[in-house]
Amino acid sequence: MTMVSSKLTDEHVFTGGIEGPACDREGNLYAVNYAKQGTIGRIAPDGTGELWLELPEGSTGNGIRFNREGDMFIADYTGHNILRVNMKTKEVSVWAHEPRMNQPNDIAIMRDGTIFASDPNWADGTGNLWCIHPPGTVTLLEQNMGTTNGVEVGPREDVLYVNESAQRTIWAYDLDADKRISNKRLLIAFDDYSLDGMRCDMDGNLYVTRHGKGVVAKISPQGEVLHEIQLEGTDCTNVCFGGPDGKQCYVTVADRGGVQTFRVERPGRCWGMWMDQ
Questions:
Q1: CA 32, CA 35: separation in Å to the nearest integer?
Q2: Nearest alpha-carbon partner for 130 in 77, 69, 52
């Protein structure tokens, strides 16, 4: 199938800090920094949007994920928090706070609610990797990596992927039942541009935003680039799956301040987690 992107939203309805994104069960898309920094925007499937939530003073969102119960979790990079949002009341609480974090950036979530967070230090070109066990207990998994950014769990929850933006590398780890990582190995390295957010489909292929290049790269579990989906704009920041069948991809594009979308062949892991697949 030919994957071609199109605009879901108008341009510049979000700031250049647009990130996230994540879909709820009803197919609404959420992304950070709608109209101004420190907010969450909600985009309906038809592309109409609204400022849905203003975060507490001092908090700015980056990655967004939902757990199976429907709660939203946000990486709050200015507050060094993982925030939890009750979707019915819009109450925002601190799920985890870790002052040792540089800035929690992107997050991945497992079926049991365990969260993994990337933690880059852009100035130093280094980064960390954290695990947040319910109810909000924070454990450092690895430190002094490159600029950790995109993070994702494989569909069988036996592998964890982390990329390093400045180093243009994607690493894979074995992940055991106790959320311990081992057998770190290089999945793929690129010679140009940068890497940002990434998500798995149900077959374990990674969809990775190539920041600066303006494409989403589909990468096999063996580290082969299978396809590149061209976007409008260059600074794509993150990607998620949604739609009624989980085969609609949504991409946040910072230099266009909006969301673009394309169809894929297989549903996303995040959608499959909703549907018990």
A1: 9
A2: 77
Alpha-carbon distance of 21 to 28, in angstroms, equals 10
Q: Is residue 108 part of a domain?
A: yes
pLDDT average, residue stretch 61-75 = 96
- Length of the chain as a residue count: 277
Model confidence pLDDT, tens digit, residues 128-173: 999 999 999 999 999 999 999 999 999 999 999 999 999 999 999 9
Does some domain include residue 2? no
Instruction: Specify if 38 maps to a domain.
Output: yes
What would the pLDDT profile of 163-198 be if each residue is shown by its tens digit? 999 999 999 999 999 999 999 999 999 999 999 999
For residue 117, the enclosing domain spans 7-274
pLDDT at 277 over 70: no
Residue 128 within a domain: yes
Tokens of 120: 């880059």
Output the domain CATH number for residue 174. 2.120.10.30
CA distance 116 to 38: 22
Query: What does the alpha-carbon distance between residue 177 and residue 113 come to, in Å, rounded to a whole number?
Result: 13
What are 242's strand-pairing partners? Answer: 248
> What is the enclosing helix (H) or strand (E) of 133?
strand 126-133
DSSP assignment of 150-203 equals EEEE-TTSSEEEEEETTTTEEEEEEE-TTS-EEEEEEEEE-SSS----EEEBTT
CA distance 146 to 105: 14
Residues 252-267 have a mean pLDDT of: 97
